[in-house]
């Protein structure tokens, strides 16, 4: 884990252009661009409960698979300061993904932030939210690159002041330099940083919703794969949940996902394979979503498993699905 990665005692000097990376865009436009239009409406009427619920909107993704090392939690003591992120340990070369769509605003040693060491990326997600990825072995995106949620951006490493390879992951809210607990930040957005199943609520949109819709079609609830988790899709999921004896709340989470996914291998064909291909594409696979599980899809599954340190058998079972949709 990190030896340092402390929170700065002094406020960070941030260049004006980095403090306002969204210059020229309205707040409404930024929220819409992130698929947060519904959240904005709920915030404006002050319904914090509804806002928290609609925050599980499919816009966020698990940045890396691994384990939480002892002492690697947010706020852990670091020589008089506190640990500014959550460490996720795995081997050098493990894939690191963008936690949400945005723009790469830093690609440098420590991200130019005090107390940080090693190769680092900072992504601005708009709405004054940032994520930081530290101790990277290799960059897979350039400075100023536009990235999507789940896109591979780097390889895990051990650069900087560390005891072993891991991702040092930070979430900043309000301004760059103001960290919040990444575990609770992501949990509020439907992502389990410790690697559990994600949660997607009614009103969500994006690639994971497409995955859900394809799976639902295979389950006999024909849905248009439009990526919008609107009332037609939600009612279908509630019917599916009732049919499985689950709580019919419309949230696709740890109870519903295992009932929804299929174990798939080469030779399979249909909407469940489209779901798998769409899930792989969210993680930078670039497959044709044709519903045919041939050698190309097998290779993509194996590659995904390999770079995430899963058993690389080319078969999509529950562990692979949980990681892909996390
Ligand atoms: Zn750390």
Automatic annotation (TrEMBL):
CDD domains: M23_peptidase. InterPro entries: Cell_wall_metabolism_enzyme, Dup_hybrid_motif, M23ase_b-sheet_dom, Peptidoglycan-bd-like, PGBD-like_sf, PGBDSf, TAT_signal. SUPFAM superfamilies: Duplicated hybrid motif, PGBD-like. Residues 206-260, 269-324 form the Peptidoglycan binding-like domain. PROSITE patterns: TAT. Residues 82-182 form the M23ase beta-sheet core domain. It comes from the Bacteria. Signal peptide: none annotated. This is Peptidoglycan-binding protein. It comes from Streptomyces anulatus.
């Amino acid at each position: 884990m990190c030896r340092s990665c402390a929170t700065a005692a002094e406020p960070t000097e941030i260049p004006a252009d980095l403090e306002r990376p969204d210059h020229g865009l309205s707040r409404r436009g930024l929220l819409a661009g992130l698929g947060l239009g519904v959240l904005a409406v709920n915030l404006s009427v002050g319904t914090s409960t509804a806002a928290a619920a609609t925050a599980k909107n499919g816009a966020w993704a698990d940045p890396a698979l691994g384990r939480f090392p002892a002492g690697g939690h947010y706020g852990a003591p670091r020589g008089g300061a506190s640990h500014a992120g959550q460490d996720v340990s795995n081997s050098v070369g493990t894939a690191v993904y963008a936690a949400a769509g945005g723009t790469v605003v830093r690609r440098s040693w420590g991200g130019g932030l005090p107390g940080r060491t090693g190769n680092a990326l900072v992504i601005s997600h708009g709405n004054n939210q940032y994520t930081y990825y530290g101790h990277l072995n290799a960059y897979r995106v350039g400075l100023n690159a536009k990235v999507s949620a789940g896109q591979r951006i780097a390889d895990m490493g051990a650069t900087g002041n560390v005891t072993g390879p891991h991702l040092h992951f930070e979430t900043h809210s309000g301004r760059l330099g103001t960290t919040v607990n990444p575990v609770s930040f992501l949990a509020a957005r439907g992502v389990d940083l410790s690697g559990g199943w994600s949660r997607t609520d009614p009103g969500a949109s994006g690639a994971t919703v497409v995955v859900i819709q394809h799976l639902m079609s295979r389950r006999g609830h024909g849905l248009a794969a439009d990526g919008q988790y609107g009332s037609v899709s939600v009612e279908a999921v509630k019917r599916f949940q009732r049919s499985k004896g689950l709580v019919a709340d419309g949230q696709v989470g740890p109870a519903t996902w295992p009932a929804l996914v299929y174990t798939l291998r080469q030779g399979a064909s249909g909407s469940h394979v489209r779901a798998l291909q769409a899930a792989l594409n969210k993680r930078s696979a670039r497959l044709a979503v044709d519903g045919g599980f041939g050698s190309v899809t097998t290779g993509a599954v194996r590659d995904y498993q390999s770079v995430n340190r899963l058993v690389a058998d080319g078969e999509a079972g529950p562990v692979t699905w949980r990681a892909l949709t996390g």
